[in-house]
Design a protein that fits this description.
The chain is of the alpha+beta class. Helix content is 35%, strand content 25%. A 4-stranded antiparallel beta sheet has the order 1-8-3-6. A 4-stranded antiparallel beta sheet has the order 2-7-4-5, with no helix packed on it. The protein is globular and about 50 Å long. It starts with a helix and ends with a helix.
């Protein structure tokens, strides 16, 4: 089994409004580990592409990711930066709830280590360890809610 201690530390210590605040402890994280896959991402590589259909959420263990959107109808338009994510952040949480296209691009600003939780693996987790699966879904929904609210507030402020 792979070592997720650095990931657990990063997730549990991230102090941002959109932090992934699950109510699972270290032992439950260890039980979750077999359902995750570890990936190393090079600086400049795209982790998520706007419009792609994908049911994967990622936990960022190490490195920095930038989130930005483009306007496909205006190919020459400058991409709009939404956020820079630090270790402990999650990204792609909407993929757990919908098979629709990704809302934004996510690119590695530095070399990164991410852990993927794919939709089918979450379904397996729900069948075998429902309490942990529920906590993952609840915390991911909370992240999505905070981010959606912040996005709406920024649009209202710009009006």
């Amino acid at each position: 089994m792979e070592d997720t201690s650095e990931l657990i530390q990063a997730v549990q210590t991230l102090n941002t409004p959109d932090a992934f605040r699950s109510r699972i402890g270290a032992e439950q994280w260890r039980m979750l580990t077999p359902y995750l896959t570890r990936h190393e991402v090079r600086s400049g590589d795209t982790l998520l592409r706007q419009g792609d259909g994908d049911r994967t959420m990622y936990f960022l263990e190490r490195g920095s990711l930038q989130v930005y959107v483009t306007r496909p109808t205006v190919p020459t338009a400058t991409p709009h930066k939404i956020a820079i994510l630090r270790p402990g952040s999650v990204v792609g949480e909407g993929g757990l709830f919908s098979e629709g296209g990704r809302m934004a691009n996510v690119e590695a600003m530095t070399p990164c280590v991410v852990w993927a939780l794919r939709g089918p693996r979450l379904e397996e987790l729900a069948a075998r360890l429902p309490n942990i699966a529920f906590e993952i879904v609840r915390a991911a929904a909370a992240v999505m809610s905070v981010r959606m609210r912040a996005n709406l507030e920024s649009h209202i402020a710009m009006s």
